[in-house]
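Bumping with the actual sequence this time:
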Amino acid sequence: MKPSAEDPEMPNPPAGVDSLEGSFSAPLHMLAACHRRIAQQCDALQRLLPHLAAHGVDEQAREAAQNIVRDFNRAARDHLEDEELALFPALIESMAGSDAVCLRELTQGLAQEHQLIEAAWRPLRTALGQIAAGEAATLAWNAVEDFVSLCLRHLEREKAELLPMAARLLTDADITRLGRAMREQRGIKPP
C-alpha cells in the first residue's frame, strides 16, 4: 500500500473517503487521527499548569479541564477499546511465521502500557474534575509530566510499530471488520 500524503506511515484512504477523522471505513486512519487528538490534549494539559499558577481556576481553566476530561474519559477510552478489543485480535488472527512472536509481544506490551496510562490518569481526572467544576484543586506538575510522557511514548510506539504493521498485515476484509467492530463498540449503526 502507498503512504498517504497526510501520514507517510499510513496507507491511502479508500476512494470517496473525504474525512478520515470519523470514518469507520478507514479505521487505521481513524486510530492515527485519535493519536493526534490525544497528543493535542496532552499539550493542553501541560499548558493548563502555568495557566492555573498565573490565573487560578478561571473560565479558561474550567473549559480546558472539561475538554481534557471529556476527551480522555470518552475518546481515549474508546481508542483503547478499539485497539484491545478489535485491532489487537485482528492482528493476532492475521499473523504468520515470525510475525507471531513480534505481534504477541507488541500487543501485550501496548496493553500493559494502556494500564499504566489509565493508572496515571486517575488522579489527574479527579483534580481536573474539580477544576472543571470551578473548585480549587492541586494539579501536580510531576503527575502531569509523567502522564504526558507515558502517553507520548506510547503514541509514538503505536505510530512507528503498530499502525504500519496493521497496514501491512490486515487485508481489506480485515479492515472492514475492524471498522465495523469499532462502530459497534460505540453503539453506532452502520450507514
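The C-alpha cells above came from a reply further down the thread. Helices lie at 27-55, 59-94, 99-132, 141-169, 172-185.
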